[in-house]
Amino acid sequence: MQSVLAKLSLCRTRALGGKTYQCDDCGATTEVFHSCGDRHCPQCSGCKRYDFAARAEQLILEGVTYYQVVFTLPGELSELSLANRESMAELLFDSASKSLNKTIRVQQDYAPASLMVLHTWNQQLQPHWHVHALVPGGGPCLSSDQWKSAQSPPGAENDDGHYLVDAISLREAFRKFAVAHLKRLYKKGELKLGGKFSHLQDERAWERFCDELTAMDWVSFIQPPPTATSTADQVVRYLTRYLTGGPISDSRIVAADANHVTFMAREGNRVGGERRQVPVTLPTLEFVRRWCDHIQPDQLTKTRYFGGWSNQKRAKYLEECRRLLEASIEIVAAPTEESPSPMGSLSEEPSTEGSCHECQECHSRSLRLIAMQAKPSWSSVLTHRDSRCPEWYAESEFTVFCERLEREYGIGYADWCLEMGLESTMSDRQTSGLPLSEAQQLYLPGLFPARDFAIESF
C-alpha cells in the first residue's frame, strides 16, 4: 500500500526520468517526465481507459441491445472484504457470473456472456464492494440453431421495450451463490476474521451471521441503454465511465490542504445515490485512509470475462453470433473486419507522439526530441539509499530493513554496515591478488563483535 502511494507521488516527476524536446518555433526546451503506470494512479488512467474501451468494442455487435447489471455485496461483507480482498473478489465475481448464467439460460434460453469490473467504493469512498457487468441482451439459442433476443414475459411491467431477466430472480440467485461460496471459504479456513468480526470464529455465531445474510434483501439491478436510440458504441462509451478509473476523479475535489479535503458526492438512500451532489469534508488523513482502502493486491484481476466472452470461448462465440445475426432478417449484420466500427481497433494509435505535447513557452506542437532518459526500475528508486525516494517512504523502508536484519540475522544496522565495508575491502584485496591476513581468512559474517567506533562513513 505504501509503495503505491510512493509511486503516485513520483508520477511524472524528474525522479522517473523522461524526454526533452526542443521547439522548432521558439527554441525553448520542454521536459516530459515518465508516468508511474500504476493502475491506481488517476493520472495514468487515460490510456488505460482508451484501451479498455477498444477491447470492449471488439465484443460489440450491431443490432444487439446491451445492459449494465450491477451486483453489490451487503455492507457487512464489504467491510469483511478489506481483510480478505482476493477471496471476496473471487466470491463476488463467481456469484455474479453464476447467477447471470443460470437466470439467462433458464428465462431466455440463449448462451450468456458478460464483462465484469470490480469497484470497491461508494461516492464517499467507503467500502462498497460491487461489480459492473456489461451483458448482451441476446445470443445463440440453446434449443435451436438461431439467434435469440431477450423477451419480456407476458404481463411484465415493461414500457420501455428493454428487458433482460427478472430482477428479483437474479437477485435471489446472486444471494444464494454468494452465501454458499462464503460458507465454503469459512469451512476451508480461508477467511481472516479479526477485529469486529473476531466473534465469527465461533461456529454458532457464524451460522447466525449467515442466516442474517440469507434473510436480508441483496442489491442487484439491471440498467438498459441510456436512451432508446443509443447505438452499440455509445453504450460502451457510457459504461466506460463506470468500468474504468479510480475511486475519485480530480474534478470532484473542490478544496484540499494539509488539514482537510472537500469533494462532491451524491447523497440519498436510493440505489446508486441521488442525482444531487453535496460537498463532503474529511480530515486529510481520513481521506487518504479511505482512498487507500481501495488499493488492491497486484495479483487481483479487476476486469474479467465470463460465458461466451471468456478467453477460451470468445472467438468461437463471436463467430457463431455473427453467423446467426447475418442469417436473421430482423437484425442488421455485424461490422466486418473491413468495416471497423466507430470506436476503432486495438491496432490503431490514438495520436502521434509529436502532437501529444506542446511547447511550454509558445504552446507550439512543433517539438523535436533532443534527449531521453530511461525510466529507472522501482527496485532502485524505492529504497532508502536512493535520493529520489520520497523521504517518508525512505524512513519507513529503513525501519523495515533494520527489523529484518535483527529478525533474520540477529545483527543491528551498525554492525551490518561494518560487515559490508569489510566484505568490500576483502573483495578488492582478492581481486587484486594480494594475500589475506589471518584475521580476514577467519572472518565469518555476523559472528564478529560490535566495534566501539564511529560508522558515519557507512
Could you walk me through the main structural features you see in this protein, from its secondary elements to its overall organization?
With 458 residues, this protein is α+β, with helices and mostly antiparallel strands. Helix content is 37%, strand content 17%. The protein is built from 13 helices and 13 strands. It has helices spanning 2-10, 45-57, 75-81, 85-108, 167-187, 203-215, 232-243, 284-292, 314-327, 378-381, 391-409, 413-432, 438-441, and strands at residues 18-23, 29-33, 66-72, 113-121, 127-136, 138-140, 147-149, 219-223, 253-256, 260-266, 277-283, 303-307, 367-372. Strands 8-3-5-4-12 form a five-stranded antiparallel β-sheet, with helices on both faces. α2 packs antiparallel against α7 (232-243). Mean pLDDT is 82; it is low at 329-355 and 436-458.
